[in-house]
Amino acid sequence: MSELARQLAQSSPMIWLEVSPPKGIDMEPLLRQLQPLAGVIGAINLTDNSMGRAKLSSLVFGLTIKQRLGLPVVLNLSCRDRNLLAIKSDLLAAAAYAIDGVVALKGDKLAAAGVNFNELDSAGLLRVIGQINAQIVSEPSPSAADRTLYPGTVANPHRANLTREVDLLANKVEAGARFAITQPIFDSEQALRFLDAIRHLPISPVVGLLPIKRAAMARYLTSNVRELKHVADFLHSYEGLPDEQVRRLTIAHNLKLIELLRPHVAGFVIMSGGGPSLAIQLAIAAARNQTPMAPGKFSGAQQREP
Length: 306
Known about the structure:
Helix content: 40-55%
Order of helices and strands: HEHEHEHEHEHEHEHHHEH
């Protein structure tokens, strides 16, 4: 059983942190910020040139995290930025350096001037991960089987056509996905509707949580993310509040969401949303608040087997 499979199968939901690699070559400031998470959370999930902006290679930064902090690493991998040859090369490199898991992404579309490779979609990438894992296991090295990549994907619980989203996720499960990280959730009822709709799928659901740093961030989400219109009133509630109060409220709100959703999920990913300080604070608070649940309390327990 891989370390990620073990985490997703345990009785108490795991806590991961999603963070973007540095914009330049100096890794030390971000590594210092992440240091308090060592031994506290389950893993670091690294974005892959999110928002179409170039950052330090997530593979290089992930390797450094494993060496310096001893934390498992889950890489997002976008089909947008690589052709098939480059994807296979990066997957082999990730396995060679014992990266723990890969989240298969199609990737946000770049501006018209950019090149969107997209030789694969996320389901196609999952099948390639399966092929790479089979290749690794077939190698003569006795430790090769320990280097396989645990495959994951993403899911959008805000999609208006929920049946369509469930069908898309089922296709990715068939292609090999073992866990699915949702887009950020702000409303427990929305999350529970989605979790109930995917209950039949053999996949570990991992809920994304995005702490709000300031009123301007909530305003941006309301104005620019069409699928969050159903939580507009909640996001508007931050309007006019000082930053410190916004941060206190968002920590409390997300800890409440974790408490409400924890019987129904395999874990949570705390998303940084541009800067890691508040997400790190929430991740530490969430991890320290975790207490084991009764056996079988997670309604999809059978889904969390490796």
